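Extended Data, record Levanase/fructan beta-fructosidase
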Amino acid sequence: MDHPDFPYPETDYQEDNRGQFHFSSRGGWMNDVNAPLYYRGVYHLYYQHNPHGLAWDTMHWGHATSPDLVHWQQQPIALDPAAHPGDLWSGGGVVDLGNVTGLKEGDDEPIVVYSGTNGVTVFYSLDGGNTFRSFDNGRKVVKPTAETSRDPKVFWDPDSRRWGMVVWSDQGGNGVDFFTSVDLLDWTFASRYEADWLFECPDLVRMPIADAFAWVLSAGSGKYVVGDFDGTTFSTSSPAPQKINQIDTYAGSDYYAALTFANLPTDRVVSMAWQGGNKGSSWTGNATVPVEQRLQSTPSGPRVLCTPVPEIASLRTATQSWDNLTLDSAAAQRLLAAITADTYEIEAVIDIQQATRLGFRLRTGPDGRSAREVAYDASANELDGATLIPHDGRIALRLLVDRGQLEVFGNDGEVYQSHNVNFDSLPGGHGVELFTNGRLHLESLRLHHLSSIWTG
């Protein structure tokens, strides 16, 4: 179906509360991330989308592209219920580099995406992921036996040299069904993994750890387990789930329905999620900053750690630095008194051995109020409620502060939290404050001012 014009209002992306380095749809409703993938130098982000209103309604697939995972450009709608059959709900996608589907017609490799409820439908693109055709008139290529199923995600298993698909279904309770294929079109049921926590938007991704690999199975909430996938069956010796993002996560929360990118040019794992709390006059919802994920061994078992993609550094326009300072409460409060900042990044390494509570107050105003506080409780070893154990008496904090979003990282990804915060709610408040109860030693502090991805 042709879309000669975007069905969106004109915008300069400067509306109150609009994130300046978090992607949001030019207009309309946005929810789950769908089929994030890389193809020939371009990152593609598809997403659940109602282009005609600010609330959830008949689902389309919105589309945006980026050369660097940071600067995003709105594209026309990719899947439209007026042209593509079925319920166009959440799903994943891959690039068929080997043309195992046999669908290739020109120079571009087929990009194949999967959607649908209570059965999986296939759509494919032969123009680099911009427009899609329905495969076999919308025939459902996978039909889970459960009454309700949705959210297919496809992955490659290099050991079995087959494609796998994980689909959420309610067969006997929450869980996922696994299917396998050699051509991305004909699928065979392989196994089922059940868990009460495993609800909606599953992902299964292979990640390196030490000198081996493990598989991470996650749900829409960001809960996950680490285990093995033998080509047909997922198993784990640690069935109690952990959380990728340490906030209260649910559909519409500040972190939900993350998926990992397919076909990346290196072996890194990159993920984006939906943030449901951001809205304005012409849009609802945004995506998190993409994060790199890695598995790390800990005394409690392997854990997924998350840090912003390094490409975020391309937005830095100016940096202010402080090093090797010992500060009491009054000196900490004075340190950043001259700073005014709109969108920015904070990196700090702090020796906390003489402090009981410390952190940053964001968007402070002349009267001392702040729009948000990020605090570390040294007595409880908690960063905003999430456990963060000091390393040799030090903690590392990293904050990404946007107009409607705040992302918090502790100790190189041991803590990862995403929040929607209306930072424009305090007129004239563009200050930043370091605070401490007790003395702290500031080993290093960097404040990077970040430019908008929508300008230039």
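Summary. The chain has a mean pLDDT of 96.
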